């Protein structure tokens, strides 16, 4: 019991800033809107956060190794459009689901293979891949919105078990898996080592290429899952699905304390960051503030978080 309490206190100190922002947001929104305090809205916020959370868990691992993945939004679009299109054309739901997930895994594998075997900048590689995939989505499926009718597919992202929506259950499962992988596995330790110093990790015997490859593959898998859940929730095929998803994920991750320079970060911090982003979006919507302001707010949040990370890295370098 004592060990558990010490762990709780350590976590509170570690995430004091994020917890403070989260509590402040909860207080402000509770006082400004009575609707916000309703159980229905709380579940709605959690459901909205779930998509970004799933993507952000993969992005956290990518940033920990010192990379970045700008393909998550286009991966969401491709997997969602492909799996949904298959169900419309009579393909069994489980097969469509598998194809959608495999498409995301393949995109992650391509990114991982290129970055593991070359010294090309992750930003350039993933930006290029993202552009290719997004273009292919429009070339293959067009720009029209198509209504989904398959009940199994619609229930995949729109159903619930009891009072818990299925997207929230997926989110919890992904968080648990990610925490176990990052905090309690050999691969997790290798991720931090690679992000801290790639050359030192390589010379210490770590298979850096394998870790990079698997990390980007996982990010692709998570993005594909999020894309299909979102497509199901929207009840339609929309080629624009996932636009800006990479920025939402990066905002959540850096706000949660993960360093853009690599070697430092946690899934726990990302969870808090994703909920902060979700509460801000929900609050602005409930206060009837134009959605374009959300882009401004997210941009400011990313800038502040990155600058705070810069100051922290500078302080750590000075201490050395």
Architecture overview:
By secondary structure, this protein is an all-alpha fold. It has helices at residues 2-14, 16-32, 39-64, 72-88, 93-117, 122-141, 151-158, 166-184, 186-196, 198-203, 208-234, 245-255, 267-286, 292-319; strands at 146-147, 160-161, 164-165, 236-237. The chain has a two-stranded antiparallel sheet with strand order 1-4. Strands 2-3 form a two-stranded antiparallel sheet. Strand 2 and strand 3 form a beta hairpin. The longest helix has 28 residues, at 292-319. The model has no long low-confidence stretch (mean pLDDT 88).
Primary descriptors:
single chain, 320 residues, mainly alpha, two-stranded antiparallel ribbon, two-stranded antiparallel sheet, 14 helices
List the helices and strands and how they pair.
Layout: H1 2-14, H2 16-32, H3 39-64, H4 72-88, H5 93-117, H6 122-141, E1 146-147, H7 151-158, E2 160-161, E3 164-165, H8 166-184, H9 186-196, H10 198-203, H11 208-234, E4 236-237, H12 245-255, H13 267-286, H14 292-319
Antiparallel strand pairs: 1-4, 2-3
Helix pairs in contact: 2-13, 3-8, 3-11, 3-12, 3-13, 4-5, 4-6, 4-11, 5-6, 5-11, 7-11, 8-9, 9-11, 12-13, 12-14, 13-14
């Amino acid at each position: 019991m004592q060990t558990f309490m010490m762990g709780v206190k350590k976590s509170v100190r570690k995430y004091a800033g994020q917890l403070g922002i989260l509590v402040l947001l909860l207080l402000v929104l509770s006082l400004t809107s009575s609707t916000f305090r309703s159980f229905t809205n709380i579940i709605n916020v959690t459901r909205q956060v779930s998509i970004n959370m799933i993507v952000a868990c993969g992005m956290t691992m990518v940033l920990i190794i010192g990379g970045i993945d700008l393909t998550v939004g286009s991966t969401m679009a491709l997997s969602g459009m492909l799996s949904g299109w298959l169900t419309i054309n009579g393909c069994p739901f489980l097969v469509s689901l598998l194809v959608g997930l495999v498409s995301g895994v393949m995109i992650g594998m391509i990114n991982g293979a290129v970055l593991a075997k070359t010294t090309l900048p992750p930003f350039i590689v993933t930006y290029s891949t993202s552009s290719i995939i997004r273009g292919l989505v429009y070339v293959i499926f067009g720009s029209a919105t198509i209504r989904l009718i398959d009940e199994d597919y619609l229930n995949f992202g729109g159903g619930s078990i009891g009072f818990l929506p299925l997207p929230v259950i997926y989110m919890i499962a992904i968080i648990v898996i990610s925490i176990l992988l990052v905090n309690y596995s050999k691969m997790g330790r290798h991720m931090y080592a690679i992000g801290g110093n790639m050359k030192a990790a390589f010379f210490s015997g770590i298979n850096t290429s394998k870790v990079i490859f698997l990390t980007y593959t996982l990010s692709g898998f998570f993005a594909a899952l999020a894309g299909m859940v979102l497509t199901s929730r929207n009840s339609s095929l929309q080629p624009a699905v996932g636009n800006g998803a990479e920025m939402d994920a990066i905002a959540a991750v850096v706000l949660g304390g993960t360093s853009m320079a690599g070697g430092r970060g946690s899934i726990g911090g990302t969870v808090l960051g994703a909920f902060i982003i979700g509460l801000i979006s929900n609050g602005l919507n409930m206060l009837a503030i134009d959605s374009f302001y959300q882009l401004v707010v997210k941009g400011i949040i990313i800038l502040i978080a990155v600058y705070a990370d810069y100051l922290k890295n500078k302080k750590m370098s000075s201490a050395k």
